[in-house]
Amino acid sequence: MLLAATGCGVMPPDGDPATGDPxxxxxxxxxxxxxxxxxxxxxxxxxxxxxxxPPPTGATPGRGPYFTNPMFFNADVSATPKATNxxxxxxxxxxxxxxxxxxxxxxxFSIDVLTASSTTPKRxxxxxxxxxxxDCDQSTVPVPVxxxxxxxxxxACTGDxxxxxxxxxxxxxxxxxxxxxNITSTFxxxxxxxxxxxxxxxxxxxxxQCTSADAAGFPIAPLLFTADEVKAGHIDHAIRFIxxxxxxxxxxxxxxxxxxxxxxxxxxPSYGVHFRLRADYPIASLPAGAQxxxxxxxxxxxxxxxxxxxxxxxxxxxxxxxKWSGLLGPxxxxxxxxxxxxxIDHGAALAITGDCNR
Length: 358
What we know:
The protein has helices at 86-96, 100-103, 227-232, 288-299, and strands spanning 107-111, 114-116, 122-123, 126-127, 141-142, 165-169, 174-178, 182-183, 187-189, 192-196, 239-243, 249-252, 270-271, 274-277, 302-307, 312-315, 341-344. It has a domain at 72-109 and 211-344. By secondary structure, the protein is mainly beta. The two termini are 29 Å apart. The model is unreliable at 1-62 (pLDDT under 50). It has a four-stranded mixed sheet, with no helix packed on it. Strands 11-15-14-17 form a four-stranded mixed sheet.
């Protein structure tokens, strides 16, 4: 269970468990109900990447954030036809209970993204049992002074939460994402995914069946929306969302490359499912900040990335210029139901084999 962050902007509402541990990134899927992060990222290139597939019909690729080449989360899918089985997936998820926390779309604000440069000291880490090979990367990691891991004031993982460590090196153009980092006098870490922000990743990202610091094999930071983006009035990328593991069918659809041992029914969505807010949703009925998020959901959609109870993940405002207070609250999107969304087709679900091929 992911613990609420300490001093990281708006907190999840009292009594609501936070997002839940990321799906286990190893070659063996975690037990049902587990939310360990999937291993995904890489300093090492994929030697034989899967062939690149075009974006969904009608999609227009863009760029950023972080990455200089178009990525799956940059595609404008506002005009993309919905999947032929969209209605059955939406109905199945609704019947299973919808979003976590009694079908309430809520927002977790506990994940930070740190910034490093060529002068930032790097540290080697000792892999823990949450490090999987070949999924995870063994590399030194930039550790900025005054930084912190998810849910903590500093780098020590004291609360036994996910303790994600996300660092973007602006000089090397690399995004370091680690699950369950713990830095005290020593540095211990789970799965590390190092993303080359200059690389043109194919559909298989870091490799099919490979996890990352998130269970679906996605990078985390580019799918988080920030207070700075909401303050500016636009979010130019798709958004990360999560669901309880008993509402997800075992398997994954591209662009996800990994899934966990989920227990959803035959018509349930798969890991990596791409949701889009319906074009006819009355966005003006939402609070101002929530309208910015909803418009991004209509244009770029949101991708399922992990298991847990708090549906949406925003970036903490600890290291941003704008702050969440007065801008967006944890329940400002609670009016959005599963039935307000459509599913975009990304192909047939792939079976989980645990055979990561990088």
